Automatic annotation (TrEMBL):
Entry keywords, A to Z: Lyase, Metal-binding, Zinc
Essential cofactor(s): Zn(2+)
Family per similarity comment: Belongs to the beta-class carbonic anhydrase family.
Enzyme Commission number: 4.2.1.1
The protein's name: carbonic anhydrase
Domain of life from the UniProt record: Bacteria
PANTHER family named among the record's database cross-references: CARBONIC ANHYDRASE (PTHR11002)
Note describing how the cofactor binds: Binds 1 zinc ion per subunit.
Organism name: Sutterella parvirubra YIT 11816
InterPro entries reported for this sequence: Carbonic_anhydrase, Carbonic_anhydrase_sf
Amino acid sequence: MTNFHDLIEGFHNFKEAHLERDREFFDALKHGQNPRTLVIACCDSRVDPAILMGCRPGDLFVVRNVAALVPAEDQSAAPDAVMAAVEYGVKHLAVEHIIVMGHSNCGGIHGLLNPVEVKNESYIRGWLCLAHPVLDELAHTDIPEDDHHGRSRHCEEAAILLSIENLLSYGWLHDRVEAGTLKLHALYYDMHDGNLCVWDAEKEDFVPSAAIVGKA
Ligand SMILES: [Zn+2]
């Protein structure tokens, strides 16, 4: 799909194939949403979480931003679009899971690593400041300066973990995690090899999700 007309036609195809064929399902959605999962993902057009995870309307409550970043409580702006969505998802929808989904080839992380390329984009530079701890951490690794893929991958993964850490800085969210009513998950979509990787706290690494499919 490349132009506006295609998108409108796409809706009519969707209406014919889904809205009109599964009226019971879509009628139920008219009465409200009850998603069990909130996803924080990147704006990147290639990483739509609903498409990648095979979801239907009503399955996911989604907030997307450049590089899937979350401000810590002492960094959140007023108004803050990310935290308004998280607050609604957690307090009103009572989601049981929050997924932070980062990805390979992330333009936001590329901008973080190459600030000269976004020197004229003040909003992007300002937003990426949230990920500066990732750069500080990168400086303490032994990843060579010329290993661009390794540096990107490290920062893409670290930014996901930073967002998880920042989510936990909100007491009302932390309390739900402590109580076991809310679980946080870190996902990394690797478009190089088509893998969705899940953070494994024991291994302290992102592991291909095929390894956990079938487990409870
Ligand atoms: Zn991205």
